[in-house]
Design brief:
single chain; 360 residues; mainly alpha; A middle domain of Talin 1; two-stranded antiparallel ribbon; 4 strands; 2% strand; globular
Length: 360
């Protein structure tokens, strides 16, 4: 039964992602919003709905490791695994707005989460602050995006809407979005229930379960949505979905969890020492990767996937106090980190030179 729920959940996720991307793309044209804004808001927030449910329930039930671990693990999974797989399938072009605004916002809220966690808890007041910040960001994003899109595409959208019987199409596409979100919610729940049962049978800690199993399970909507969007050539939605989801996870999911919790959410020393800094590091790494040529190449996608595999293996081995952990630490400090920094610097240098040649 557990295996059945696992695969049934996966099927629902894929179906829900297809409906969500199709409906959201049409609504973007109708509402006068760019597909990037839809990806950063409707799609991103919708695919993060499973994280919101899981974290809220965990906070209310007094399971802080699940709540914090789900947010941190989901953000790491989104960048390394979702972007990695999407780029490996099809190189992704990154909008300048994402590079100049949304990625810096993602880094900023990640820093805020890290600072809030230094005292070992996320308080209700901090949860309120994050939630208010989320409403301000969303309002600004939608209002500014609508103005820019209206200035560029008003005539084109008007003609298309008139010929397509706008109201019937609007209702139909809203139905697609809602149906997609429902399928995503049920699919995530079934998949996570099956995965958590399997993980507990292997006697792994709740923090590791949240960081790996629950985070990956609740992030599968992002994975399915971004992959489907990339295959449908909706690349703004593919990238915007991930960046928007990571922002949503911190400002709304963690914020709501902090408000709902009966007492301040405890942040485990293990998460504060390793996992939250990793989340912050991969968020910062997006800036030079996205900036280099304003695209995510296929080889960069495979590198991201490799990093996530290494991170997951490291977590599991550390949880089991495996003898290979010191060797992995040495490999990470002596090889992976220096190589990553060197690769980023070379990529940035190549990008700057390329831009200078274009200007000349």
């Amino acid at each position: 039964m557990t295996i059945f729920l696992f695969f049934a959940g996966l099927i629902l996720l894929i179906a829900g992602a297809e409906l969500l991307v199709r409906g959201a793309s049409e609504i973007a044209l109708f509402a006068g919003l760019s597909k990037l804004v839809i990806g950063l808001t409707v799609v991103a927030y919708g695919t993060s709905f499973p994280e919101l449910v899981v974290c809220s329930v965990a906070s209310y039930a007094g399971e802080p490791d699940i709540a914090v671990g789900n947010v941190v693990g989901s953000n790491i999974f989104n960048i390394l695994c979702v972007i990695g797989i999407s780029a490996a399938i099809l190189p992704l072009y990154v909008s300048r707005q994402i590079i100049r605004l949304d990625v810096p916002v993602m880094v900023a809220v990640s820093v805020i989460m890290f600072l809030f966690s230094l005292d070992g808890v996320i308080s209700r007041l901090e949860g309120v602050f994050l939630t208010v910040l989320g409403f301000i960001y969303t309002w600004w994003l939608v209002s500014s995006g609508k103005k820019e899109s209206a200035a560029q595409n008003s005539e084109e959208n008007h003609v298309e809407v008139q010929h397509d019987k706008k109201w019937k199409r609007l209702v139909f596409n809203i139905f697609l979005v809602i149906a997609g979100l429902v399928l995503l919610a049920f699919g995530s729940r079934w998949l996570v229930d099956g995965a958590v049962y399997i993980a507990r049978a292997l006697q792994v800690s709740e923090l590791v379960i949240a960081l790996v199993i629950v985070a990956a399970g609740t992030s599968l909507p992002e994975l399915a949505t971004s992959v489907v969007a990339a295959l449908r050539q909706e690349r703004d939605i593919a990238v915007g979905n991930i960046v928007g989801s990571n922002i949503f996870n911190i400002i709304f999911v963690l914020g709501a969890s902090g408000i709902i919790a009966s007492e301040p959410i405890k942040v485990s020393p293990a998460a504060l020492k390793f996992d939250i800094p990793v989340m912050l590091a991969v968020s910062i790494a997006c800036i030079p990767v996205f900036f280099s040529g304003e695209r995510i190449a296929r080889w960069e996608g495979f590198v991201f996937i490799g990093y996530y595999v290494f991170y997951t293996v490291y977590l599991v081995l550390t949880a089991r106090e495996h003898y290979a952990v010191p060797l992995l630490n040495e490999i990470m400090l002596s090889f992976i980190v220096p190589l990553t920094v060197l690769t980023i610097l070379i990529t940035l240098l190549h990008s700057v030179r390329k831009r200078e040649k274009i200007k000349k």
